[in-house]
Amino acid sequence: MDYIEPKVDLKDLLDSLLEAGFGIEGVEDGDDPIIDLEVTPNRPDCLGILGIAREVVAMRGGRLIFPDTSLLEGEEDVSDLVQVTIEDADGCPRYTARVIKGVKVGPSPEWMARRLEAVGMRPINNIVDATNYVLMELGHPLHAFDYDLVGGYIRVRRARDGELILSLDGEMRRLSPEDLVIADEDRAIAIAGVMGGMETGITDSTKNVLLESAYFNPVSIRRTAKRLGMRTEASYRFERGADPEIPPTASARCAKLICEISGGVVAKGVVDSYPKPQGPVLIRLRKEKIEGILGVGFSDRDIASFLERLGFKVSGSSPFLVEVPSFRWADVKREIDLVEEIARVYGYNRIPEKVPEREILPAPISHKELVLEGIRDILCGYGLFETINYSFMGYNDLASMDVPPTDDWSKAIRLLNPISSGQELLRTTLIPGLLRVVERNMRRKVQRVQIFEIGKVFREDDGISEEEMLGIALWGRRYKRSWHFGEDDVDFFDLKGIVEGLFFSMGISADFVRDSHPSFHPGRCAGIFAFGNRIGIMGELHPKLLSGYDIKGRVYVAEIRLLPLIEEVGFEKHYVPIPRYPEVRRDISLIVPEDLPAKEVEMAIREEGGELVEDVILFDLYKGEQIPDGMKALAFSITFRSPERTLRGEEVDELQARIVEAMGRRFGAKLRQGGWMG
């Protein structure tokens, strides 16, 4: 925190304006300077005036004066008036209670009301204002109950499922077992660390006060406050980590103020339930570590002085043994944290700039990175744009797809703390994210969207697992509008061509087999097979799925598992010499059953032809006249070649006849009339 020296001496200013003996509380505060501080989440100790004063003393010198906590107690023992039971020591490690009897509830003194208003708090009454005053003074939240409405029993427990409480803001809250509550023998009377209950709050008729000062688990308070949508001064501090050792002190300070401004007598002692006291946090600090990080040499005396000014206790010499004060347990846990504290006090601006002398070597590129980067290069070369989406999806996405392309929806993982509605689940597929990109571009009048994403999907299968996936999406025009291109939209074969080209560039032999899936249009879906396994799916998305998005037209997507590619594929190039002997090309047209995939026929031709079949290309499909019902004609161009000699015509004729005979035997195929073509 920067400290600004005043330009005008405050004493001289007051002497010129006021007469000697005039009370400072009588000075109008409309022109008081305002200091606006932004405290980072790791410094909950600075959420009170005491913490800020401690920082000023550490940076500018001086002596820290702690507020007066001396109490004049009555004869009645507090242990005879209240009993505290902690059922959840993890949620509430410490709970203290005091009792003040005979108070008179009324407006707070002017000086207290003005100070609370100056920090943005509304004065309520002298009892509640005293707790808020200590909250801002020491940075520790407290709560005051009407003792006569609570009775002498306090129970810290988890809420019952569906338990209701009317909070001080007038809202009826429905609680769950995740919430920690303060209860009496029958009911919840406060949401622990967040807000008290209306039924046991301080009113004008309150005569006796039960004062709570506790320490609550930060994670528990954060979850409750977020789930209930409640952000209070108390939860703001507790969820960042309060001081577990200050509750009795804060309680004494508040009880003293209550007695001073509302009368009453404080019962003797304090009920302090602390089931698992935390011992001191000790950190070993090496002098050479400080010098190695900051590049500055310090004496042992300087190091001890820097830390002691911040409230740390230092013993020994390098290595020092440093005891962390309880108000810094939330953020000082390691040796490097102490080095940072020394740098703060010494001054970052005083640390010299020095470029380290190190040999910088290029980071090795793993095989996985090489494969993924190669995929990106290939797809970008095809004109696709890479997208990066959040790894989350919502229940609406879940409902629009019966099951994800590669797994069962029942394995979707629910987030405990989603960042927003519509992102409650870890994604099990890349498709919803790609569709949102298509939707966003379509709204902006983009004519064509060709995108891909490489990202992880997650599922719960004997623990949480994750897998790298490739998603591709096409929508809109095939080409940009131009005089020499038509207005055709992309179709299934545009997507298939991209996937085939990707696999070809990676040296992968992939097969595409007709498939069906609830998320895809019937008859326009194919499974992708490689290395003997199904590695993905592709096709046109079902209109039912697209109805959940503002997308007009057809969308074609592919989703491919990348692990098999990463494990099996490389981008090494191998030289293949130009063939020395000529090819012989023959075309055949076969009549086969309509439901027989052309790929099976192609594979059978290659198998029957053996090493002399260099290539097989399907170049025509015909249904209509001269073709029986339930049949189709497939025309293939077969390339024959031997790497060792020139093939003879008779030899090729014999091999071609054997292929045709095998097709008839295996598939019932017949040679179409005129099917032998030179």
Protein described:
The chain is α+β, with helices and mostly antiparallel strands. The protein has four domains: 73-273, Phenylalanyl-tRNA Synthetase, Chain B, domain 3, CATH 3.50.40; 284-350, Phenylalanyl-tRNA Synthetase, Chain B, domain 1 (2-Layer Sandwich), CATH 3.30.56.10; 367-568, 2-Layer Sandwich (BirA Bifunctional Protein, domain 2); 584-671, Alpha-Beta Plaits. Helices cover 29% and strands 25% of the residues. The protein contains 19 helices and 30 strands. It has a seven-stranded mixed β-sheet, with helices on both faces. A hairpin with a 2-residue loop joins strand 24 and strand 25 (533-541). Mean pLDDT is 88; it is low at 1-8 and 403-407.
The percentage helix is 25-40%
Radius of gyration: 39 Å
CATH class of the largest domain: Alpha Beta
State the end-to-end distance. 90 Å
Structural class: alpha+beta
What would the principal axes of the Cα set say about the shape?
elongated
State the domain count: 4
Counting H and I runs of at least 4 residues, what is the number of helices?
A: 19
Provide the residue-averaged pLDDT: 88
Q: Can you identify the CATH superfamily of the largest domain?
A: Bira Bifunctional Protein, Domain 2
**CATH topology annotation of the largest domain:** BirA Bifunctional Protein, domain 2
| Most strands sheet | 7 strands, mixed
Strand content of the residues, in percent? 15-25%
Q: Mind telling me which CATH architecture of the largest domain this is? A: 2-Layer Sandwich
> Which regions contain 5 or more consecutive residues with pLDDT less than 50?
1-8, 403-407
Could you give the order of strands across the largest sheet?
Answer: 17-21-22-26-25-24-23
Number of strands: 30
